[in-house]
Amino acid sequence: MRVLALAALMFAFGMAVASAGTLEQVKARGYLGCGVNEGTPGFSTPDAKGNWTGLDVDYCRGIAAAIFNDKTKVRFTPTASQERFAALQAGQFEVLSRNTTWTMDRDVSLGLEFIGVDFYDGQGFMVPKKLGIKSALELNNAVVCTQTGTTTELNAADFFRTHKMKYKILVYQKEAEYLAAYDMGRCDADTTDKSGLYGDRLRLKNPEDHVVLPETISKEPLGPSVRQGDPRWADLCRWVLFALINAEELGITSKNADAMRNSPSPEIRRLLGKEGAFGRSLGLTDDWAYRIIKQVGNYGEIFERNFGMQTPLKIERGLNNLWTKGGLMYAPPIR
Amino acid sequence: MTTALRWTRANLFSTPGNAVLTSSIVLLFVWAVPPVIDWAFLRAVWTGTSRDACVGADVGACWPYIWARAGQIIYGFYPDGERWRVDIVYALGIAGTLWLTLPNIPRKWLGAALMIFAFPVAAYVLLLGGVFGLEAVPTLHWGGLLLTLVVAVVGIAASLPLGILLALGRRSELPVIRWFSVTFIEVWRGVPMITVLFMAANMLPLFLPESLDTDKLFRALVAIAIFNAAYMAEVVRGGLQAIPRGQEEAAKALGLGYWRRMTFVVLPQALKISIPGLVNNMVSMLKDTSLISVIGFLDLLGVIQAGNTDPEWASPNTALTGYLFLAIIYWAACFSLSRYSARLERNLNVGARP
User: Fold this and answer.
1) Model confidence over A9-23: pLDDT tens digits?
2) Contact indicator for A244, A62 with CB cutoff of 8 Å
3) Digit-coded pLDDT (tens) for A46-67
4) Are B310 and A41 in contact (CB < 8 Å)?
5) Residue A203 and residue A161 share a domain
6) Are residues A176 and A250 in the same domain?
7) Could you tell me if A141 and A202 lie in one domain?
8) Angle (deg, nearest 10), helices B318-348 and B267-288
9) Inter-chain contact B203–A48, Cβ cutoff 8 Å?
10) Residue B6, exposed/middle/buried by CB under 10 A (0-12, 13-18, 19+)?
């Protein structure tokens, strides 16, 4: 499968699909094509009514709101992990928003362009509350469960070696198996990417009895990507993400966006299109960011809606908080 | 009572080996079945509106999850207001199938003609829309049982005639046709289905000019039909080879041309003895439809797997319940296929030598 995907990609790269004028194509067609995960809690899942929900989904709705002033003008293509890059190259959609880790290899050699990070993920640990552990540094002599043959195993080994702690690892072929082993108490800790741990927790007998420890031991910056070859389209997608983050920093929400248009703050006025011609320089109207925030909300609202304390996942902002609140979310200014 | 006992002793415990076999099978049954029934029915949750209903120390299958997702399982992402169109297609399909399969409904020829010519057109127009004021529903929004049935039915209906032609071609006396058929069959049989689907979905659009840009599902259907035609061809060829040469020679002596010899003499006999193999292929095709999830279509398996990730419903039992339900649907579909084939064999008296 991997060889196949690679061959497909090399071929696609050779063809170097010239996709100049993506925005014009999207406008003419009347909807945005967005490749999403077939189902990952918080990022993209179809709800019972068949609507796609999640952070990756909301980002694409934001782009649609900016272009069409209508967040529903998106067609979501559920995309399998093996075909995601080839499908983007083949033009099945214009944006791949599928909790994809930004790595150098993918960015440089796959003919695609990452446009930013919309979720800082990373490997973490989950432990039963009754162990009374508050930090991963207290995991000395722990038995850790994980899936075999993934980088997760290696990251855990690095972490314990770096901190001169002893541990025993129990590896399982399947996700469901190690989760069952953890639930039965055969291991003290479960380790995988943190967003996955919160999803795992819901599948335990008593989710409330388990806690995800604060440490993040690997870097998994997840973000959307586009085909290489149309820098204007990449710019547009990048600034939609920045608008979401800037809006949260400036305190603009979907509820107060209308009132904020009359704000005297120059930063807010520029973001909402009251001053300058920033939207036009993207090929959009000047109220592009207002449309996004009004219809989809700012980054914080999107996060809370899909991962926050009101959802079953209950993920803390952590690294995904604004830089002003101890997180990594930082967007260049609009000026 | 004593006869039953005697029968048991004579048939199940006749030798020490048989006694061991019988008792281990009974033990296995006792060991495996009660826990499943206990989990799936006795301890199961039947009502609820979210995962909270299915969380608890001693809870079994989470059936409300299936009820909540029933719409998506049956219609995929077909828009709510348009689902009546799918219902009509389902109803037409069921009516036609009953017409053709129930022995006491007359005018089979009319039913067959309608199912072969009118039903596909009606289904195409109703499902895809875009004409007669019907809202267009792109294939991207199809899914669940609808998509599985579309893929299975189109695949089976297209691959059987194609397979027959290929089988005849492989036995043709004209070298060009023979070599074309042999190459075609061997090439398609030699590639894994996943590769074929992947090529159809993601590579073809790169080869073809944009004006030839076709629907992704259409490309996948063509790929599935061609792929399975190669398998069907070999089953039919097996049937053809079992027909004694004398049959064709006699037809020749009567002055029948090639197509008449095939349609009236050879194929009816050959297809009759190929039924077990053909149905075997069809059952396996029905199950292989789930492979289209590798190119991002959410078929029956896909929607259930996607639903399993919904945080609103995630619980220790949700995914298991989804898979159990899926297994029941697939089993029911495949079992009815094989029952139908068994009846067909009985009616056509396949057991008798041709």
Assistant:
1) 555 544 444 445 899
2) yes
3) 888 888 999 999 999 999 999 9
4) yes
5) yes
6) no
7) yes
8) 180
9) no
10) exposed
In A141-273 the beta strands, taken as DSSP E runs, fall at 142-147, 167-172, 189-193, 210-212, 220-227
CB contact under 8 Å between B71 and A49, yes or no, is yes
Residues of A in contact with B201 (CB under 8 A): 83, 87, 90, 92
First to last CA, chain A: 46
Contact assignment for A50 to B77 by CB distance below 8 Å: yes
What DSSP element (H or E) covers A112?
A: strand A112-114
Positions of chain A with pLDDT lower than 50, given as ranges = 1, 13-19
Cross-chain Cβ contact A203/B71 below 8 Å: no
Burial of A82 (0-12, 13-18, 19+ CB in 10 A): middle
Q: Are residues A31 and A86 in the same domain?
A: yes
- Closest chain B residue to A183, measured at CA: B316
Return the structure tokens found at A95.
């944006």
- Reduce the DSSP state of residue A87 to 3 states and report it: helix
Residue of B202, B308, B316 with shortest CB distance to A87 = B202
Q: Which residues pair with A46 in a beta bridge?
A: A52
Nearest-neighbour CA in chain A from B64: distance (Å): 12
End residue of a domain, out of A174, A193, A212: A212
Residue A258 lies in a domain: yes
Final residue belonging to a domain, choices A183, A212, A241: A212
Mutate to test the interface with A, among B80, B139, B202 (most CBs of A within 10 A): B202
- The 10s digit of each residue's pLDDT in B164-204 is 999 999 988 899 999 999 999 999 999 998 889 888 888 88
CA distance B154 to chain A (A): 22
What domain range is A276 assigned to? 2-120+220-298
Assess whether A21 and A58 both reside in one domain. yes
Q: With CA atoms as reference, report the closest residue to B79 among B138, B123, B34, B21.
A: B138
Distance CA A35, CA A39 (A): 12
Q: Which residues of chain A are within 8 Å of residue B315 when distances are taken between CB atoms?
A: 202-203
Amino acid at A158: D
B194 interaction partners in chain A (CB closer than 8 Å) = 1, 4
CATH classification of the domain holding A138: 3.40.190.10
Total domains, chain A: 2
DSSP line for B321-354: HHHHHHHHHHHHHHHHHHHHHHHHHHHHTTTS--
Whether A99 and A23 map to the same domain: the answer is yes
Tell me: ipTM over 0.95. Answer: no
Nearest CA in chain B to A196: B309
Instruction: Flag if A312 and B314 touch (Cβ within 8 Å).
Output: yes
